[in-house]
Amino acid sequence: MFKKPVLVESLLVLAVVLLVHTAAWDRYSWCALALAVQAFYAQFKWDRLLQLGGAVFQFRTTANSGLLPASMVIPLLGIVMKERCKAAGIVYFERFGVVVASTGMLVALFLSVIAVGITKPVPTNTCIVTGVAGSIIIYTMKHSLTVSEVIEVLEVLLIFVYLSMILLYLLPRCFTPGEALLVLGGLSFVLNQLIKRSLNAVEGRGEPIDFFLLVAVVGVVLLGLFFTVLFLFMDSGTWISSLFFHMMTAVLGLGVIMPWLYRLIQRNPLFWLLQFLFQTQTRVYLLVYWTFLAASACGVVFYQNAKRSSESKKHQASTLTRKYFHFIVVATYVPGLIYDHQLLHIAAVLCLAVFIFLEYIRYFRIKPFGQTLRHLLSLFLDERDSGPLILTHIYLLLGMSLPVWLFPRACAPKGTLSGAGALVPYSGVLAVGVGDTIASVFGSTMGEIKWPGTKKTFEGTMTAIFAQIIAVALILIFDSSVNLNSSYAWILASVSLVSLLEAYTTQIDNLLLPLYLQIMFM
């Protein structure tokens, strides 16, 4: 009974892989197909290891391993990016897509080999499938990649190995193996890109907003690692430690991150940011509007905690209460997508940095706000927050932002892709902001027919599909840059597949669903 949802989830992922394979039909899509079959076999070995407690690190126990859906995200993103940029004639980003696909395949294969290696007795069939898939992938890489590209792929793999050993040890029960693959694989690629671009900064390739994303992500992660090591030797909850935390944050920010950004964008980062934010009147209006929404979100948190104080029996926020934040992020992202993509890109980066920094303050109990944040956020915990970090709100932000950040602007002739590709930046809004929210609200309040083996309901899924179709119609009305070119059947199929995946996956849907919808749209 436990394996039945896993099988349906695997079939849905395989359907996406086959659709991409049919569209691309080249050596890389064949490799993706081989990887999917291999990951399907290896996934059950990881599930068995988690059930028996035989995994090397402590993973989240309220879900299956999620290896197959996570393994396919980065390779498929690379393949569809390659196809889009090939059609646009942009050779540099076409090769970049090849590197992304190759890196994703190799990292996923590495994680599968670990599962096979520590499973006792040795699973013969899985070993054969893994060997065949690995041979196909390595043979294709050997005949497709240049020497510099092979080195880049191996660099990302090496970074992934070290990051996995460090972060999975420091953050037990925060990830499933699939989520670790997705998060740490993406982080490894970002770190490698930042190192590569820093060494070649004189070439001036890239836009400042892209450098802001790379530096912000790597900067906050390095900041967290620094303080984790530091607070192994001192109590983080004292005023002296808290003062040292704030001082060192300022030193690292002004002494490392700002000079790093200056080298990349060749101008003062703070002056550039201020000029960028207030460049037009539309941006000022958007910033004021977003400030109001941020204050509203804080108001919801304070109100729910005050309500908890008066109702001592209520210990956790309801599903409907948690979905307030989904409605708020939809109201935040839609105007940004319609009026100013670049401002939304930078605002999302800054918001991510703030979210992670506040999580450090909560986790380390930094005075004066650490204990207050612990109390306020404890109301919104669910079964996915079983580790020392609270990550669901960060995953929500990532799910909404990744389609904006990963949108291949260089391969879009007029700033937007044709057909269903025009909806790529809206993938997070549709999958998480509309689909997941409506499915949860209607499923929990009116749903009666449950999907076999899950807690999700048929009514919730169907309502989510219908709501996303209505949302697409509204996007067509209000965003003049979107032209679907009669690709309505493909959009319906994409939305339906991802909504079914939401019903059957036990992984972090805020992170997984937007990426799969983006792959389908591209």
UniProtKB/TrEMBL annotation:
Broad class of where this protein is predominantly found: endoplasmic reticulum
InterPro entries membership: Polypren_kinase (IPR032974)
The keyword Cell cycle belongs to this UniProt entry's keyword annotation: no
GO molecular function: dolichol kinase activity
GO annotation terms (biological process): dolichyl monophosphate biosynthetic process
Compartments, as annotated in UniProt: Endoplasmic reticulum membrane
Transmembrane segments: 63-80, 92-116, 122-141, 153-171, 211-233, 240-262, 282-303, 324-339, 345-365, 386-406, 426-446, 458-478
A GO cellular-component term linked to this record: endoplasmic reticulum membrane
Enzyme Commission number(s): 2.7.1.108
UniProt enzyme class: transferase
Protein topology in the membrane: Multi-pass membrane protein
Record's keyword terms, sorted: Endoplasmic reticulum, Kinase, Membrane, Transferase, Transmembrane, Transmembrane helix
Similarity comment: family membership: Belongs to the polyprenol kinase family.
PANTHER family registered for this protein in UniProt: DOLICHOL KINASE, TRANSMEMBRANE PROTEIN 15-RELATED
Record protein name field: dolichol kinase
